[in-house]
């Protein structure tokens, strides 16, 4: 998971990917941050609006409606491929969803599709998707027959790739609302596996030349990460710089139970901190006992240390 992009970097990332951007007045400070957390973010979620017409759809997504205040997404993708920015920060677009889907997105460990969702807004084990995902509403009636023009699909591909590129994610960080909540069916009319294939091909393309200010000319080399040392490594006898590096990452993710800061020796503060991280990823019960496992370790991205 990652810290959300501020408005300027968000805009620059989209433009660097060749997105045609329209800035709605006030979008940079329009959000629902007062209603809950915004970040860390894990991916991008695609929706359809169940509406027609660009101007009216953008206003709907900016303002919301009775019972669901706006913004309802971060950007509205029109039929002509233009992307209208309406928010920077938390938005009312994802709602509650399945923690197993969040884990699969964070670790990018699923096949063609994430696991089938079994949770939704208001269900007992649902996790807050509004804090974890960028959201894009695509103008479409959602009836399965309203067409998806090539320009609109291209824009979905580009905005998804732009944010994946900015955060160092792969295409498996891009999901549809129907893959998040068992109550939802959007987007309807094209398949998310095919869209992820398009996004991954774009991410594999050569770096963008002469990007706007704020975006590096090429994606920096991925930092070398510490391989998972095995669960048996984490015991009170262990003293290693790996433990210190892990602790620093936990602190950076807001999962600290430390009173004096991370140290090389594995202890109860490390276990409690790591349990917070497992809960943050959506693990529960014995899967969140504070002892690192491979999936949660790989998601933490601990820097390599000798």
UniProtKB/TrEMBL annotation:
Example GO biological process: peptidoglycan catabolic process
Name recorded for this polypeptide: N-acetylmuramoyl-L-alanine amidase
GO molecular-function terms, A-Z: N-acetylmuramoyl-L-alanine amidase activity
Residues of the N-acetylmuramoyl-L-alanine amidase domain: 27-188
InterPro entries in alphabetical order: Amidase/PGRP_sf, Amidase_domain, PG_bind_dom_phiBT1-type
Gene3D superfamilies listed in its UniProt record: Peptidoglycan recognition protein-like
Domain of life where this protein originates: Bacteria
UniProt organism field: Streptomyces viridochromogenes
């Amino acid at each position: 998971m990652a810290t959300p992009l501020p408005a300027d970097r968000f805009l620059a990332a989209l433009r660097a990917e060749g997105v045609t951007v329209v800035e709605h007045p006030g979008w940079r400070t329009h959000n629902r941050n007062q209603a809950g957390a915004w970040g860390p973010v894990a991916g991008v979620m695609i929706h359809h609006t169940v509406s027609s017409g660009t101007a009216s759809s953008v206003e709907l997504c900016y303002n919301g409606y009775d019972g669901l205040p706006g913004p309802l997404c971060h950007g509205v993708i029109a039929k002509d491929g233009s992307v209208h920015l309406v928010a920077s920060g938390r938005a009312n677009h994802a709602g509650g969803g399945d923690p197993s889907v969040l884990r699969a997105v964070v670790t990018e460990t699923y096949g063609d599709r994430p696991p089938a969702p079994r949770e939704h807004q208001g269900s007992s084990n649902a996790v807050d998707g509004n804090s974890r995902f960028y959201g894009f509403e695509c103008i479409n009636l959602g009836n399965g027959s309203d067409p998806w023009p090539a320009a609109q699909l291209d824009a979905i591909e580009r905005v998804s790739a732009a944010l994946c590129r900015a955060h160092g994610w792969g295409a498996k960080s891009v999901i549809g609302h129907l893959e998040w909540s068992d109550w939802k069916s959007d987007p309807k009319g094209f398949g998310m596996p095919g869209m992820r294939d398009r996004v991954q091909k774009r991410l594999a393309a050569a770096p963008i030349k002469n990007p706007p200010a704020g975006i590096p000319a090429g994606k920096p080399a991925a930092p070398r990460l510490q391989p998972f040392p095995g669960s048996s490594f984490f015991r009170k006898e262990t003293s290693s710089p790996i433990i210190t590096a892990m602790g620093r990452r936990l602190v950076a993710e807001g999962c600290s139970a430390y009173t004096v800061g991370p140290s090389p020796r594995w202890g109860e503060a490390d276990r409690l901190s790591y349990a917070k991280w497992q809960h943050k990823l959506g693990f529960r019960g014995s899967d969140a006992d504070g002892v690192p496992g491979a999936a949660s370790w790989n998601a933490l991205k601990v820097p390599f240390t000798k």
